[in-house]
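Example (one chain per record):
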Amino acid sequence: FELTKENSLMEINIFENKDFAKLPSNLSFIKHCRKITTLIDINPICKFYLQGYQKLYYNSIKKLIVTSCSCGLGRSEVIQLLESNKNMTDLSLKINFNLLELNYFDTIIDLKRLKYLSLSNSNISDMGLKDCLEQLPHLEGLKIIHFPNLYLFNLYIPTLKEISINRCNNIDNEFLGIFIKSHPLLEKIDFSNMSIGISSSLLLARYAKKITHLNLSYSDNIINDLDLALICSNCRELIHIDLSCTFISDKSMESISIGCKKLKTLIIPYTAVGNRGIHTLLKKIDSIIFLDLRHTLINKDILKVFKGFPNLYYSVEHQIIKEKLD
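Predicted structure:
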């Protein structure tokens, strides 16, 4: 609150803080904040506006995260925020109780400087999404969660470097591969909770050679050792890999150790990887700083191996432990 007196507060984060929003007096300081560039969880603030305590006047927002807007709550306020902040670069609409409607997309089109966009829960069609996204000339990062009416996903966004598609299970596996092929600048790919088959793996290995981050966890067509061998032999810039709940084994650790010499983070819970694979990995790659090995086939003997790597963080149960040499 002292920051508001100096008019220097630049970020408001009230994420899931219901108690904070109960008393209007807790939000009264907002009227002093004229330089806000980041709003996280606008929901309680929208309640505040709807109660008539404060008019919405922000026009310097660069980053906006909207979560849990229930039916009719804050919709007009959010639209107003979008319309009055045409220079916004980072937008996330995590609307869990109501599907995104076309009026949101009509407004997003006007955010010509938008670089990162995350959208959850919408019945918008392939063409509706395509018409919106292809009018954003500077878009570098896109995240789409639970869009049940997406089938083709024939988007082309030439500036795109990061793509995350989750729980869009009607998208054909072939079109995911085509999307990868048509976007050579991709550095981060997240296809978790998706149907990833051999055709996508082949195209990913062939055309996504610049990727540094890869997430294929919880795939419907479960990734196996052969798929990963294809990817690791070509995607040699990888520093982060998440293969949680896939059909990989110690053979995949050999593939990673040969092809991914820059790897820093490996996440492999619920896999058939054991002590031998992890030992092989650590012997051949000295850049690894974190391993998530929960619910794998490792046993306590692996802790003896970890003692030789004092800078390694790892998770073997429910806590992250760092072993330090005396």
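Caption: DSSP finds 13 helices and 14 strands in the chain.
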